[in-house]
Amino acid sequence: MTTQQAGPDLGRVQRRTVGVLSGAVALAGLGVTVGITIGGLLAREVAGSDAAAGLGQTAGVLGAAVLAVPLARLSDRAGRRAGLAAGYAVAVGGALLTVLAAVLSSLPLLLAGLFAFGAATACGLQARYAAADLAAPERRGRDLSLVVWATTVGSVLGPNLAAPGADLGAAVGLPALGGGFAVSAVVFALVAAALVAGLRPDPLLFSRRLRGPVEAVPARGRTRTALAAVWSSPGGRLGLVAVVVSHAVMVGVMVMTPVHMGHAGGHDDATTLRLVGLVISVHVAGMYLFSPLVGWLADRAGRRATVAVGGGLLLAAVALAGTAPPEATGRLGAGLLLLGLGWSCGLIAGSTLVTESVPADVRPTAQGGTDLVMGLGAAVAGAVGGPLLAAGGYGLVAGVSAALVLPLALVWARP
C-alpha cells in the first residue's frame, strides 16, 4: 500500500489517533500531577527532612527515565498500544505501592512505588511521539503539540485534587497524603483500558505497513546506536540537548517549590496545600495550555527559533521565582508559568528535531533513548534540589538551574 493510495484513510486514522491519545493523556494527567504535587510532601513526611522531599520526586523522575527504554522497545516490537497500556499498568502498581508505603511509613517502599509511578510520566511523554508516527512533515510539530496540549485538562485540575484526595484518604482510614495516590491508581487503570480499546489501528504498526519493510536493528546496543545517530545530526543534537536541559531546569525548580512554600508562616496545613496546588496548576497550565501555539511556532518560525525562545523563558522564570519569598504566591505562580512555557518550547521543538533526525527504522528507539537521557538529567536535578535547598535556600536551587541553560546556548550557537 502506498501513501498516496492510503491518502484519505491515512488522514482519518491520524485524526482518530490524535483524538484517542489526547483523551488518554488528558485523563492520565489527573493522576500524574496529583503525584507531582504531593509526592515530595509525602516523602518529607515519611522521612522527616526536606532533603527527602527531593528524593521522592527524583524517584518518580528516575522511574520515568529508566522505564522509557523498555516501554519504547515494547512499542517497537508490538506497537504503541502495547507499550503505552503496559506502562500505565506499571503505574497502577506503583500508585498502590505508594499507598502501602504511606500506611507503613516506609521510605524505601515509598521510593520504589514512586519509581514505578514514573511509568505514567514516561507514557505521557511517549504519547507525543505516537502522534507523530503518521503525521505529515509540515504538521508534525502541531500534531505532536496537540497531544501535549491535551494534558492540560487533567494536569491543571490534578494538583487541586490533592486536598480532596487527602480528605478521601482520611475518610477511608489511609494517611491523608496517601489518598491522592489511590485516586491515581484508578485513573491509570481506566487510561490503560481506553488505550487497548481505542488505539486501533496502531499508529506505529500502520505507518510501517505504509512504508513497507524496514531494516532490522540489532537488539544489542540498539539504544546507544540510535542516540549516536541523533547526536551525529546538528538538528538531532540541538533537539536532544533542548529536551534534556528544558526538563532538568523545569524539574529542578518545580519539585522544590512546594517545599519552599511550606516554609511560609501564617497558614495551616490545609491552606498551604491549597496554595501549593494553585501554583502547580498555573505551572502545569504553562507547560501544556499553549502547546498548540508552540507547535505552530515550531512549524512556521522553525525548530531552532522555538528552542531559543524556550531558553529565554527558562532564564526569566528562574530569575522571577528564585527571588520570591515562600509567602509570595502570586510571584511564584508567575515564575512557574514562565517555567512551564519554556519547558513546552524546548520539549516540542526538541522532540520534533529528534524525530526528524533519524531514519524511521530506529525512530522509536531513538525517542525512548532521548527520554531516558532527559529523565536522567531531570532525576539528577531533582536529587540535588533537596540538599541545595537545605544548604542555600530556594534561590540557590534557581541559580544552579539557570546555569544548566548554558550548554543549550552553546549547542544552539554552533549548528
TrEMBL record:
<feature type="transmembrane region" description="Helical">
    <location>
        <begin position="372"/>
        <end position="390"/>
    </location>
</feature>
<feature type="transmembrane region" description="Helical">
    <location>
        <begin position="305"/>
        <end position="324"/>
    </location>
</feature>
<feature type="transmembrane region" description="Helical">
    <location>
        <begin position="336"/>
        <end position="360"/>
    </location>
</feature>
<keyword id="KW-0472">Membrane</keyword>
<feature type="transmembrane region" description="Helical">
    <location>
        <begin position="110"/>
        <end position="131"/>
    </location>
</feature>
<dbReference type="InterPro" id="IPR036259">
    <property type="entry name" value="MFS_trans_sf"/>
</dbReference>
<feature type="transmembrane region" description="Helical">
    <location>
        <begin position="396"/>
        <end position="413"/>
    </location>
</feature>
<protein>
    <submittedName>
        <fullName>Predicted arabinose efflux permease, MFS family</fullName>
    </submittedName>
</protein>
<keyword id="KW-1133">Transmembrane helix</keyword>
<dbReference type="InterPro" id="IPR020846">
    <property type="entry name" value="MFS_dom"/>
</dbReference>
<feature type="transmembrane region" description="Helical">
    <location>
        <begin position="238"/>
        <end position="256"/>
    </location>
</feature>
<feature type="transmembrane region" description="Helical">
    <location>
        <begin position="84"/>
        <end position="104"/>
    </location>
</feature>
<feature type="transmembrane region" description="Helical">
    <location>
        <begin position="143"/>
        <end position="162"/>
    </location>
</feature>
<feature type="transmembrane region" description="Helical">
    <location>
        <begin position="20"/>
        <end position="42"/>
    </location>
</feature>
<dbReference type="GO" id="GO:0005886">
    <property type="term" value="C:plasma membrane"/>
</dbReference>
<dbReference type="Pfam" id="PF07690">
    <property type="entry name" value="MFS_1"/>
</dbReference>
<feature type="domain" description="Major facilitator superfamily (MFS) profile">
    <location>
        <begin position="17"/>
        <end position="415"/>
    </location>
</feature>
<dbReference type="GO" id="GO:0022857">
    <property type="term" value="F:transmembrane transporter activity"/>
</dbReference>
<feature type="transmembrane region" description="Helical">
    <location>
        <begin position="54"/>
        <end position="72"/>
    </location>
</feature>
<dbReference type="InterPro" id="IPR011701">
    <property type="entry name" value="MFS"/>
</dbReference>
<keyword id="KW-0812">Transmembrane</keyword>
<dbReference type="InterPro" id="IPR005829">
    <property type="entry name" value="Sugar_transporter_CS"/>
</dbReference>
<feature type="transmembrane region" description="Helical">
    <location>
        <begin position="174"/>
        <end position="199"/>
    </location>
</feature>
<feature type="transmembrane region" description="Helical">
    <location>
        <begin position="276"/>
        <end position="298"/>
    </location>
</feature>
